[in-house]
Each structure stands twice: as structure tokens, then as C-alpha cells.
Design a protein that fits this description.
elongated, 3 domains, DNA-binding, six-stranded parallel sheet, Rossmann fold, homodimer, alpha/beta
Amino acid sequence: MTLAAVARTAGVSVSTASLAFSGLGPVSDATRDKVLAAADTLGYSGPDPRARSLRQGRSGVVGMLVENSVIRAFRDPVNVGMVDGVAEVLGDAGAGVLLLTDAPHARSAFDNAAMDGMVLSGCSPLVAELLESLRRRHIPTVLLGSRARPGVPAVDVDNLTATEQLARRLAELGHRQAATVTLPLDAAGTQFVSPALLAGAGGDTAADRLRGFWSVFPTGVALAATDSTVEEGERIGRLLLDRVDRPTAVVAQSDLLAAGVVRAAEGLGLAVPTDLSVVGFDGIELQTFTSHALTTMRQPMQDKGRTAARTVLRLIEGGRPRSVTLDCEFVPGTTIAPPPP
Amino acid sequence: MTLAAVARTAGVSVSTASLAFSGLGPVSDATRDKVLAAADTLGYSGPDPRARSLRQGRSGVVGMLVENSVIRAFRDPVNVGMVDGVAEVLGDAGAGVLLLTDAPHARSAFDNAAMDGMVLSGCSPLVAELLESLRRRHIPTVLLGSRARPGVPAVDVDNLTATEQLARRLAELGHRQAATVTLPLDAAGTQFVSPALLAGAGGDTAADRLRGFWSVFPTGVALAATDSTVEEGERIGRLLLDRVDRPTAVVAQSDLLAAGVVRAAEGLGLAVPTDLSVVGFDGIELQTFTSHALTTMRQPMQDKGRTAARTVLRLIEGGRPRSVTLDCEFVPGTTIAPPPP
DNA sequence: CGATTCGATCGAATCGATTCGAGTACGATA
DNA sequence: TATCGTACTCGAATCGATTCGATCGAATCG
């Protein structure tokens, strides 16, 4: 069923039929009715999106990349929130969301799909490569959760300052011996993070949060997780708490990691916050994970997604939107206290 | 940058350039090199997916619909697992996943996006309407988690039998007074579910699981949740446990709901499983939610997604794949015991 | 040496719409 | 009645590839 067939049946030209359907051009009521009637008779269900997108030069689809597999990415509510924000704004704009991962097997879809724009979230080691591919294809791109690049605006929170604020609270409570659990820092899976290593690192989330931590606790131990999960937080937490120089406070770079640290502490018979203070990052709803109200920094996940989507839409329309830094909000919680005497 | 420009620069015809690029036709090495060199010079990044999809009649995109908003859908790991399975298989096939919701604002994307096929998950009240739209557009569709329709195969587990097995375990332990918490049953948000109401219902997940429950406990009370969340499970759980005819066992239709019921019980000072037995459904990893190992029926979420994706791919290729029913596996857990004397 | 075959290349049709400029007919105005 | 304007309608170009059948040249075979 093509528009041509409908036009023939209705006894009008293809162009008129097109106008009648889209409701754009001046078409008499009689003609429009004829066309719609013919379409109905023939079971024509509207113009073929493929043809339309070729002609119009846009497909009405925006790609959204999340790190790792879908299942790993969406284990963290932060990613879910961001995708939700993106989907909401794009949906309102009549666009669809093509869900992509940086897994190797999804690469072909990434390279071959028709997309008008792209939201690249996370700081995958592949980002540079993917960006280059998108640049060659002239696909307007927005980074979500990493630093802007020339010609590629970014949407993020100020990770450094936010973490600094958290660390400062701990310092003000009297903590001198603090440690941190970072998000994955590099592809190599380094565990013990030294300042030297960080110097070479870029402006990733993990690196910025670590800088914020070190700006308050310059000698604090930093261990990197391999994933942002409760289990991994528990594992690293145990490593930290087993050290001879056991910290009195832990700054975890995500709430999931923080929940793991709390668990590790309780597993070792330490009370939170009396024996150990713990702060997280993200502000996801955690009642379901621990009985504590986690002290953390809430970041606006959905707003990040919405803003990224709006930014990419503006790019698609030819605008030159600027990068956006959104604000975090401190969540007091009940997992910090002065260090034990 | 078009293929035509590349062909001109390389001094060959467009058709030859196309053959050289796709690597399909017989092209001499010399020619191929010339074409690729020209492409490189001009910064041509491969054929335009829009044009290609028009000509080939397929876009390399398969839609996947989840219920509610992204954030609500992905609060339940079951949906995440299914999307992961779908993404995995489609990725391997070189296809992309267009993530759609049944929210009103996403409708335009649903109707206008170029898709070769569609996986409709859940039992949204809109399913009938969406199916009709897809039928008119001749988009091959697979249902995931609801009953097959004429011409539309489905992938699901045997919800009735699986729930029956769970209920039977409870009966065998001596329970006579059991209640159930169902997933949302209808758009109206009915809370107290009567057999009469169920008779009119279709073959939805919630209805089938309820039938399984009633086939063992014909007089058991059934309350419907409005959502599959821990909070909602706790709310309904309290309602059930406040009744004068307090049940000694609760069959929750999802693990999240079950976790909520466990919480409600503990909140009322009841011990699980001594005072109250609770079973769930799904087999998601719940260590993070309760200290109990939930007794439940594990359903293969990712496999459901994978199977649905394979089925839709077969449909796209013109095959006539059959509906598939996957198996569940009983997870003993520690939340059931004989009823208190 | 002529006929046959095969590999490489090309031209042109095609996918299904959108869109622009041109054209037509009708009614209104002077 | 002639002219102008308005409201519709149409034809044709275009988007950027893929693909089929035809052609051409060289190599192989009898």
C-alpha cells in the first residue's frame, strides 16, 4: 500500500494526497475526505517512515548509549533515571529512543542505525572511538556524565565540588582518617588508586569525585570498584576495614557502593555511624537496601536525562546549545557521626 | 557526502561503488581500493541508513515496548532482564532496539518510527489498540508475557501451573488459610478481586497466576496491587494481615510484592516463616531487599527476552514461528514453614 | 583464429514519500 | 467584460542508496 495507490483510488495526484495526509498544504475538505476514505478502503496506514525519513533527512530517532550490558547498566537506578528523562523529553518531541550499549555485539547497530542525534552517557573507554564515528557521520551528540569536548556539549553535575562538600562534612565532624571507594577508573581494573595514576586520568566522573575527596583528605586511601553494585561495595568495604589503618569514614562514589560498605561494616561487627561513617553519592531510594537513611548527595538523574535530550534536540535543529551543569543536593541521612574516640 | 560523489572521485559508477562498499558484488581489488580511498579522502562514512532502509525495505530496528514509564518499568528487574535478552539477540543480529513505552506521550514515536518488528511486553490495557496499529502497518509482532493472538505468537512462562505449584507446597505444609497479592489486574485499579471479576478477565499474567492460586485455595482472599513494588507489597500486606481471618500464608505474584509482604509482617511483629509463610514469583536477586532467602519461582527473564527476539527475527524473515512457553524453576528459600498451631 | 565464458563494470529503474514551482479555475472587483 | 487574486491541484524533481540486466574486454577452449 503506497500513497500513490491511495492517490489513484481517490482520483487525485500523489502530491495532493500527501498534503491531505500531512495536513500541511491547502486542501479542500472534499478532497481530504476522498483521500482519507481511499486510504481507509485500501488499508493504507500512513506514509512509510523509511521513505519519509529519506526525503526529510531525519528519522525521528535519537540514540542513547549506556555502558555495559542493559542488565548491568540498569542495575543502577541512576542510569534508569537518566534514560527515563531522555525518553520523556524525546517522546514529547515525537522522537523515539534507540537503546544502545557499548558491548561489542551492539556495535553494528550503533554504526548502521538511522539516528538524528545521540546521547552518550557514561565514560566508557570507547567514548573517544564512538565520538569519532559519530563525528564522521555528522550525528549531533551530547555527553551525559562526562566532560564536554570541542563541539560536543555535555550535561553533568559538578562531581568534584559535590564530593568535596561531602568530605568536608566528615572533616568537620572530626574525621582525619577517611578512605574512598571509587567507581571503575580505568579499563585495566586497577584497584589501589594513587595520585600519580589520577594525574593521567581525564575528567571522568570517578576521577572528579576522587579529586574532590583528596582535596579534603589528601592522604586518604582510595580503592576502585569494578562496578557500581552493593556486592562490589561490600567487597571493597571489607578490604578497607581490614587495613591496619582502618578509616573512621568512607566516601563511596555511589549509593550502591555505600550500601555495600555499610554491610561490610556490619558484617565485621562495626556499627554505623558510631564506629564508621559512610556517605554515598546519587540519592537513589535506598530504603529497600539498608535500614539506614544513607547520607549522600542527591543528583537529579531524570533532570540530567531531560536536559540532555533537550540539548540534543536543539543541536538537531541546528542550534549551538551550551554544556549544562546541574546542581546536587545534600541529603543528611543518618550514616555519619563524629569518629569514635 | 554521498556515494555518488565518492564514485565520481574514484572514477567509477555508483553501482560499482555500492558493490565495493558492501562487499557483495564481484569487484576487482584495484577498484575497491580506489573507492575506499576516495571515500576516505572525502570523509564519506558509509551509506546513509535512511536511503538504504528505503531501498531494502527494512530499517534494522526492532521496537520493544515496556509498560508505564521507563523508570517504573525498570524498577522491576524482570523487565530489565527481558530487555537485556532482547538487546543481546538483536545486537548479535545487527539490529537496534527502539525502546518504547505505553505512555501517551510516546505514542507518536510508536506510530511513526521505522521498525521491522516489535516485541510487546506486558499486558498493558492498550495492547489491543497497539496490536491493531501494528497489524495495519504489517509490522511483525511478538507478545512477551501475555497470551498469543491469531497471527501473533507469544513467549511466556506457564504462570498458572507455576503458581499452582507454589500454592501446593503451602497446602502440603498444612496451610488452609492462604491469601494472594496479585499484580495489577485491570485499568480500574480494583483492589478486592472476586472470582466473578476474574471470569471476565483475559489471559493476563495476573489472571493466570490468580487462577493457579485459586485452583489450590478456592476460597483464598485476593487483593490486587496497583504496581509491582516493595512499597505496594507492604501496603497490601498490611491490609491482609489486619483482617480478622488473617492468612497463615501469602502468595505474592512478584518477588517485589513478596518482599513488601515480609516487611509488613515484620512491621506487625510477625516472624517469617514461623508466623507467616510468604512466596513470591520471578526469582530476582533479593538479598539486597530482605535478610530472608525468598521462596519463589524463578522465571528465565533473559531467556524470555532472547526467545522473543529470536522469534521476531524469524517473523521478519517471513517464517511462521510458534509461541514458546519457557519453564520456571522452584527456588526453595527460607520463607515457608508449616502454619503456626 | 573464432567462439564461448566469465569477471568486472555500468546504466537505469526502483524504493515511497515530500516539496516547490507552475498551472487552473473560480469568484470578486473595477 | 476584463483583470486580478485566491484557493486548490498537479507534475516533476529529489532524497541516497540497492540491484538487476546488459555490456564490454580479456582469457580460455576447441
